[in-house]
């Protein structure tokens, strides 16, 4: 079974590389880590040190073979962004401030917390 593209791609991503996320399903449930890579064509993310699988590598020129642990991608629905203030997983939304700047926010009940740093990828449009 090889690589397969997602049937319904997420159009507006709310998780970016470098976000602190919590795994909410799977063998690493409840653990947090940083997003290392976002794979938009598959609706998946790679989280540092989570969802480790064994990879058998053949010996070749310039490298030794063996069994290595690598990070496998997780589906985006299995992770949630962690609120920087409370440390709990939350849903992320967008909001425009009075001066017209777009910020990411975490809404929990009536409390709205803005993320301190919001680095948009180059050429990102909503």
From TrEMBL:
Keywords: Ribonucleoprotein, Ribosomal protein. GO terms for molecular function: RNA binding; structural constituent of ribosome. GO terms for cellular component: ribonucleoprotein complex; ribosome. Transmembrane segments: none annotated. CDD domains: KOW_RPL26. InterPro entries: KOW, Rib_uL2_dom2, Ribosomal_uL24, Ribosomal_uL24_C, Ribosomal_uL24_CS, Ribosomal_uL24_KOW, Translation_prot_SH3-like_sf. Gene3D superfamilies: 2.30.30.30. This is KOW domain-containing protein. It comes from Miscanthus lutarioriparius.
